[in-house]
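Tokens as discussed.
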């Protein structure tokens, strides 16, 4: 799972093996700058106290069980989330299979069974809005009280701001919904990336406009429809290309389904990749309907010119930095 992260699947598996630990608890969707700051503090305190830096997370997202009608669209799947957690220096992760029975645990039982018996917690770090237990009736004040009873210290971490904007998974989703991929990347601390298979398109691009790679992704969050400067990587061999990507319905050709089409700004040179990652760097424009394929192709070439200018600037600024 990357960087030697030890993963426990369920509390029973963790009992007697996970402690003594310094623990943070959360969904950690997207592992954004706020989560990263929490992990930095967790790792530092674990080292100071001689504890194992650990996290407790849930799969599926608890809201999908207790209130599926308002469950958030996730920025990342569990495997990717664990990779990013490992990259933050965390040693252990307890993944709790969240179900109806678990959701009914009272706060006291959550602390006794999960934190004390399962994780062997000696220090618990959580955000100031942390809630736990049945109907989320437990708060940070009760956590501290229970910690004093069960022998662990509680540390409450304030929410993180980035350039006067509060960082949260909800905020990142809102930025992506608005097409503000640059700001979303800044909050994440990395470019927002769609991953998936390259699938056959309808051949319109190669015949009438420009050839593209068509991405089939299972991502729950897509940036707003429009045209973007992107960076594309072959998921298997690491080849990379500067690119321009359109998310939309292809209105010029009467499209009726959402597509993610990427035009590479450099020659493919080699086999067509079967899986790619497309990172969204900046929004160029909205998708719109053109009079014909020729008008669309002319606009695409203007988009390419703007993207090339962007990449020339990025070379001076340091490519890859958000």
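Sequence:
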């Amino acid at each position: 799972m990357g960087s030697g992260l030890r993963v426990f699947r369920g509390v029973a598996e963790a009992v007697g093996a996970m402690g003594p630990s310094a623990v943070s608890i959360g969904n950690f969707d997207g592992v954004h700058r706020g989560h990263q700051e929490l992990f930095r503090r967790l790792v530092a305190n674990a080292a100071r106290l001689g504890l194992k830096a650990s996290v407790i997370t849930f799969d599926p997202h608890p809201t999908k069980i207790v209130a599926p009608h308002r469950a958030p669209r996730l920025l990342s799947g569990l495997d990717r989330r664990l990779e990013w957690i490992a990259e933050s220096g965390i040693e252990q992760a307890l993944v709790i299979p969240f179900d109806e029975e678990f959701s009914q645990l009272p706060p006291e039982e959550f602390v006794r069974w999960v934190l004390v018996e399962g994780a062997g917690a000696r220090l618990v770090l959580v955000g100031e809005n942390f809630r736990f237990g049945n109907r989320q009736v437990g708060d940070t004040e009760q956590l501290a009280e229970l910690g004093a009873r069960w022998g662990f210290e509680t540390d409450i971490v304030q929410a993180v701001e980035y350039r006067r904007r509060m960082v949260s998974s909800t905020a990142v989703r809102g930025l992506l919904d608005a097409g503000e991929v640059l700001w979303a990347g800044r909050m994440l601390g990395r470019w927002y990336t769609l991953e998936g298979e390259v699938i056959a398109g309808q051949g319109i691009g190669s015949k009438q406009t420009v050839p593209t790679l068509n991405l089939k992704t299972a991502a729950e969050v897509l940036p707003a429809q429009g045209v973007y400067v992107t960076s594309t990587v072959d998921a298997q061999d690491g080849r990379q290309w500067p690119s321009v990507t359109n998310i939309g319905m292809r209105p010029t050709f009467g499209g009726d389904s959402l597509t993610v089409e990427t035009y590479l700004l450099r020659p493919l040179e080699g086999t067509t990749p079967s899986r790619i990652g497309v990172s969204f760097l900046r929004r160029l424009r909205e998708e719109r309907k053109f009079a014909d394929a020729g008008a669309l192709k002319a606009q695409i070439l203007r988009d390419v010119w703007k993207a090339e200018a962007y990449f020339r600037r990025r070379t001076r600024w340091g490519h890859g930095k958000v």
